[in-house]
Amino acid sequence: MITTDKLIDLITMTLKDLGKLRWTNLATNLQEYIALSRLLNKHKVKFDSGTGIQWNVMVGFTQSAKTTGLYAVDSVNVGDAMKTASIPWRHITTNFPVDRREVTMNSGASKIVDLIETRRAQMMIDLADFMEKIFWGKPEDSSDELTPFGVKYWITPNASQGFNGGNPSGFSAGPGNLDCTLYPNWKNYTDTYSEISSTDLFQKLRRAATFTNFKSPARHADYEAYTKYEYFTNWNVLGEIERMLETRNDNLGSDIVKYNDQALFRRTPITWVPYLESDTSNPFYGINWGVFQPVFLRGEYMREETKAAPNQHTVAVTHLDTTLNFKCTNRRRLFVLYEN
User: Fold this and answer.
1) Residue 71: inside a domain
2) Less CB within 10 Å around the terminal CB: N or C of the chain?
3) Counting beta carbons within 10 angstroms of the beta carbon of residue 139, is it exposed (0 to 12), middle (13 to 18) or buried (19 or more)?
């Protein structure tokens, strides 16, 4: 007879070896889930503690450098150059239940493994689908205390070319509580395009990649451990780029090439994001993972635990909990172009 305690032990052991039986997955709606694979990439993950996430930002300098003459009188000024940006933690949970009688009815070791494996797979698919939504989106406004701060919170579109991505809609205090009206260097790069061609989109992509390549003249400890851009768009854009690469009927330049059947911009693959298929503005995002990172609360990174369900003495529930948010330490290293 399988008790609830034994069922919890069985689930815990089974999760370490996800079964032998095969099945076809027709549950997912998207061809690929970009966000979760990036979240699970340890090179892009940062861990932190405390009641929230904060970091330091230099928003100006003293402008004390000048020409001078012999015996000139010094003028020394101290400016308020440093500010602290901050974002709160957000919490995500998902789970799956197993009733011990289900295990009894699914006799045989392989069947038991299959039952737990499929339940856990459903949980992970649910998490991947949810993560995709929050990663590419943003909270409705500052009154939303549950939704993490995704791409559209940090990368704000604007029709004007240049660093014009200001405060996201609904957040008058600015992203990270730094108001872009007061600190214009806290804006991301923006532009629009009318056609996918060497004289329009590609030329503007080159400009965006060049203008967001900031290098500090003063050596100092920085949050940017490395520079690694990834470029994301939908099929309306990527499909046309691939068609042009196939026919070579346009002067694409050296920045847009094809390698191993994949379109590259500046030697970096252009990634198709199925979730962006519903975005009729046909955006093209440039994300620098050196400054844009998922941050997890230490000890709460994809934490799994199985326990007896309250008020259901025959049921064990496996919970998967994550405390995280998305942090950007330099919005000027990010850009978005969209069709206008």
Assistant:
1) no
2) N
3) buried
